Amino acid sequence: MLYFCRKGLTQMIFSPKSSLIMMETNKMIASQLLHIDAIKLSPDVPFTWASGWNSPIYCDNRKTLSYPEVREIIKQEFARLIREMYPDAEGIAGVATGAIAHGVLVADLLNLPFIYVRPDPKSHGLGNQIEGAFKPGQKFVVIEDLISTGGSSLAAVRSLKDANVEVMGMLAIFSYGFTQSEENFERERVKLTVLSDYANLLELAIQGGYISEKQLMSLQEWRKSPHTWNR
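Predicted structure:
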């Protein structure tokens, strides 16, 4: 395996065979997310995110859990990557709440312990932010469902590190690929690998007739400056 840097973010290159598998996986999962409406594209009538951003896309990967074939693909691909990239992993950590189920499925397949990380400590009981059993120094891979700016995902990583968990890296189902998220992951020195991304999604969307050429241009513009798009 080799490493290279793109925009300062360290990523992993596998053998030509593995790289081809990743490309095919990326397209296959993007296609499935479109097919089951886990991703909706609406550049003409945009959505509003909690951040206040106008967005031509809405991603809800929890829908994948309702489709056995899709969740099986995601589970198997996560497991394959962990076996290849992190063979010494001692556990799987899911980011609450969207990645808990996927994390459990992967941990079960790999026969590894599972824990999950809340956004904040519980306000009652033991006040846990990390749920499950782990030991200081244990090596965990973090599973996430969606990467936007990376803020909440990296907050979970910091919580794990504060608890003396060794975070080997993070795997996610889908990423918008914002420059901001790349910079955030680089700053935190967290290796991120995604099963599918925005660029492949748009390619499939235009090929499949989900969007027009004009809408494609709008979607590409949003990706460049999501905080100012359609203001």
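Summary: The CA atoms of residues 115 and 132 lie 5 Å apart.
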